[in-house]
Amino acid sequence: MSSRAEAIFFYKVEGLYGCFSNFSSHSIVMKSRWWPTTAHYFQAQKFAGTAYAEQIRLAPTPQIATEIGRDPRLPLRRDWEQVKDDVMREAVLHKFATYEDLAKVLLATGEKQIIENNRLDPYWGCGPDGNGKNRLGHILVEVRTILRERVCSSRVIAVY
Ligand SMILES: Nc1c(N[C@@H]2O[C@H](COP(=O)(O)O)[C@@H](O)[C@H]2O)[nH]c(=O)[nH]c1=O
């Protein structure tokens, strides 16, 4: 893995590598439903199987989906802390597997570190001091590895 100095930083959808954000306008189909963004899917899974999940799915923007998903008055599923990383990985993998152009951007980052430059979020992002867990960046690196392995195995099949 590269040094932090060479790392790829992303956050805003409008910025370079904006397609790495869960707010980017790339819809996915998961659990037999259409989701406008991975942010909609991720936030809805906090209330899977309830009417709140559908309300989030139909939210007009990822910002509104996230606002609803973070509402502390809503009944968060009990196992959320245990499953949230898996939900995020599943959504991000699905997005990059759906859009070949995005997969190419991610694969072209080679071995570089990927960091969500979100100063407000020490869990998914780098946090206020830059030493946050950066879980979204790590998940993007995991997805990059999975996609690379898929590309390699499809090339092996093509050779045979
Ligand atoms: N707030 C924000 C983003 N934060 C995103 O929200 C998700 C985490 O939600 P939660 O677990 O409820 O805190 C995760 O995908 C994180 O990257 N992203 C963006 O592009 N723009 C924003 O303004």
Automatic annotation (TrEMBL):
Q: Which reaction does it catalyse?
A: 2,5-diamino-6-hydroxy-4-(5-phosphoribosylamino)-pyrimidine + H2O = 2,5,6-triamino-4-hydroxypyrimidine + D-ribose 5-phosphate; 5-amino-6-(5-phospho-D-ribosylamino)uracil + H2O = 5,6-diaminouracil + D-ribose 5-phosphate
Pfam families on file: NADAR
Limits of the NADAR domain: 9-148
Species in which this protein is naturally found: Reticulibacter mediterranei
* Full protein name: NADAR domain-containing protein
InterPro entries membership: NADAR (IPR012816), YbiA-like_sf (IPR037238)
